[in-house]
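Holo prediction — coenzyme A.
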Amino acid sequence: MRRVAIIGVGQSHFGELWDLSFRDIFLSAGVEALEDSGLEGKEIEAMFVGNMSSGRYLAQEHIAALIADYAGLAELNVPATRVEGADASGGLALRQAFMAVASGMHDIVIAAGVEKVTDVGSDAAMDILSSSADREWEWFVGANLPSLYAMMARMHMEKFGTGSEDLAGISIKNHRNATLNPKAQFRREISMDVALNSPFVAEPLRLFDCSPISDGAAAVILADETTAKEYTDKLVYLAACSQASDYLSLQNRTDPITMSAVVQASKIAYRQANVSPDEIDIAEIHDSFTIAELIAYEDLGFVEKGKGKEMVREGRTEISGELPVNTSGGLKACGHAIGATGIRQAVEIALQLRGDAGKRQVEAEKGLALNIGGTGATAVVSIFEVA
Ligand code: COA
């Protein structure tokens, strides 16, 4: 396999983007990534786009062709492929691009993600988002995404003594980080009091335990090491990008508070990148709900099972801590534009490792991103490094 590097990154603002169309949102991220890389565009050999549900949000399918057309790549006949894995769609697109470059099939590939969610109302958005769980065994009997994560949270609380304050601590951290990110949806700090007194969405999860409904897009340009060196001397390598699956519905998992796909994908990624969890300096972790971030601390091997709460209580994942997590604000406060999220995480880690993260810059040489679909039936773990 060839070494793969990131040579350009771009991201739209995340949030309720009423004044922008689906294609405009994508284009803002794509153009930024091209400008960042110094490419003209004609050098792109292939494109992979993560998107969960444009058919239901916008009644528009065939979006990879649409985007290639709108981005000026159609006249070059560049192959463009849509990739779907619920809110892991972006991570999967990154993995497809990674494999295309690592294998030698292509030298320069764009991996992108885009979702326009807010054109439908909250109820419809919840319905569509919850189709990432098992429609027949979960959603038809009333279990939507927040309630499934609520069950996981309750089990974690009962078994390990995790408290509502621990979950709120994750939300407070991510909101604080988002104040430093000009592209984030919510750029305001919240207090423990505000978090713990926000309304229940699905008990024990409150409003501030949930990621919001967001529109947005992100793009990264990957190249093999030799080609990458022609464009930049600030190389960030994608050292691993691994994927694993788990049972779709919670009821089939022997342990619903261990995300086996995360455990498995991370083990493969650590092995491929030849690093151990304690060597990771920074992480972007899929916090669709605060409990997801806490469980991921454990399943990624940063802390023993059941001790995720200690990471919060000891401030270890704060921006000033030993392992800053979600410096972007995470899904909770930067926003969760479903198919774009996995790519948006890669953008953040690349900016941090390059030293281009502005006010939220931390010292880091190795970074990790975890993007999951639904309650964890799909997991993508990527490891980034500067040397
Ligand atoms: N966190 C913080 N504030 C939020 C928020 C969130 N997750 N969601 C909405 N808000 C704010 C809005 O900005 C708005 O504030 P304003 O009155 O100051 O403008 C207010 O709350 C009401 O917004 P509204 O859009 O009416 O909220 P809602 O009640 O329709 O939706 C949730 C709130 C939590 C139900 C919705 O965000 C949700 O479904 N989140 C989970 C999404 C999900 O399942 N994702 C899949 C993950 S796998």
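READOUT: The first strand starts at residue 4 and ends at 11.
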